[in-house]
Amino acid sequence: MKKTLFAALAAAAVLAMPAAHAAETSVVKAIQACNADFFKAVAADKNIPESLKVRDGDMAYLKIEKVPLDVVLFEKPFKQDGLTVTGYIFNDEVIRYLGTPDMHTHFWGLLVKEDWKSVVDKIQIDWEAVDTNHKSAHGNRMQRSNHDKEWKPYQREQNYTMPELGMIERVFHVAPYEDKTMIFCSMQSAGAPSEAILKETRPDLLFGEKEVPVRQEAIQSSNPHAGM
């Protein structure tokens, strides 16, 4: 009887545990949502060296030293959710074309050892497209304006060129990078994303005195904005 009572009390205690004591979301899982939860997962992940983290409350930002692109490899890769995480990659810049709104382009995520197709098979999301020619895939495409409070699912039209002024688009991708595979998010907007959107998606860009570099581009006859 005592054993039964003890077991029942123990089970109740587990159910009553606050979220902070529940199983932490892995960085591999968190990056798929393309929001600030990724940085909370980084803060909790003991596999990522503390020397590569910049802590900010319950979040931790990954240290970036080079712009616009920085790639950092871990001395000790680690296994998580069936993938071998070897490092991280960030690219942030504003692309300026004469006569058009500045294109704010960001991508950030992790590098893994496995080949792209193995990664696509392991990550269980509703892929919008899997491109065997370019060995890439993407899904979880969302769109939002600076005035909206929520992201909404979005599919591009065939004649898509770039987001409309004040619109922000974010997507989760899998793509090759040298002898590795990137699992990463992209976010692009015509005009700067609002502080509220950055706070929900890339709070690291609001921390300290980080400045996103600007790249001036000449107008070309072909569409320079097609892509992400």
How would you describe this protein?
This protein has 228 residues and is α+β, with helices and mostly antiparallel strands. It has a domain at 63-217. It has five helices and eleven strands. The chain has helices at residues 2-15, 27-31, 37-44, 116-122, 195-201; strands at 53-56, 59-62, 69-80, 83-97, 103-112, 127-131, 136-145, 152-153, 167-177, 180-190, 214-217. The strands form two sheets. Strands 3, 4, 5, 6, 7, 8, 9, 10 and 11 form a nine-stranded mixed beta sheet that branches. A two-stranded antiparallel sheet has the order 1-2. It is globular, with a radius of gyration of 20 Å.
Q: Which terms would index this structure?
A:
globular; nine-stranded mixed sheet; 5 helices; alpha+beta; 228 residues; two-stranded antiparallel ribbon
Task: Indicate the low-confidence ranges by residue numbers.
Answer: 1-22
User: Average pLDDT across residues?
Assistant: 87
* Main beta-sheet annotation: 9 strands, mixed
Radius of gyration: 20 Å
User: How many extended strands?
Assistant: 11
- Helical content, roughly? 10-25%
- Approximately how much beta-strand content do the residues carry? 35-45%
Distance from N terminus to C terminus (CA atoms, Å) equals: 62 Å
Query: By helix and strand content, what is the structural category?
Result: alpha+beta
Count of helices?
A: 5
Oligomer: single chain
- The SSE string, one letter per element, is HHHEEEEEHEEEEEHE
